[in-house]
Amino acid sequence: MKLPKTISEEIKAHLIDEEAKIKKTLVSLKLQDPFSDPDRLNDNAASDTEASEESSHERMEALEKELNIHQEEIHQALMRLEKGIYGKCVACASMIDTDRLAIKPTALYCVDCEKKKEK
């Protein structure tokens, strides 16, 4: 069963919007990262400043990794939309509940298969 075109277009627009937000956030993170400052290497900052910058950099790297993963999930969802298989569980091929897709548009598994996967 394929999704109606209007719903498919709404989902696609939502996913593209989310992807754009992620790209914008990733650019912002790069600009805020103290390690991206080329003058940082020439800076003789105190060790507490250095530790603070290191901690900030690690937090930003972790967030960047999460965002990149989510961006890839969005890309995969868009590809499934293009192929006409969006909303089908990748494990059992049954349709994923629309409430689940509304909450997590990048869902790959129906609720039952997700539970089995988590065990």
From TrEMBL:
The keyword Ribonucleoprotein does not apply. It comes from the Bacteria. PROSITE patterns: ZF_DKSA_2 (PS51128). Residues 33-59 are annotated as: Disordered. Residues 84-119 form the Zinc finger DksA/TraR C4-type domain. GO terms for molecular function: zinc ion binding. It holds the Pfam family zf-dskA_traR. The keyword Metal-binding applies. InterPro entries: Znf_DskA_TraR (IPR000962). A zinc finger (dksA C4-type) spans 89-113. Keywords: Metal-binding, Zinc, Zinc-finger. This is Zinc finger DksA/TraR C4-type domain-containing protein. It comes from Candidatus Gottesmanbacteria bacterium CG1_02_37_22.
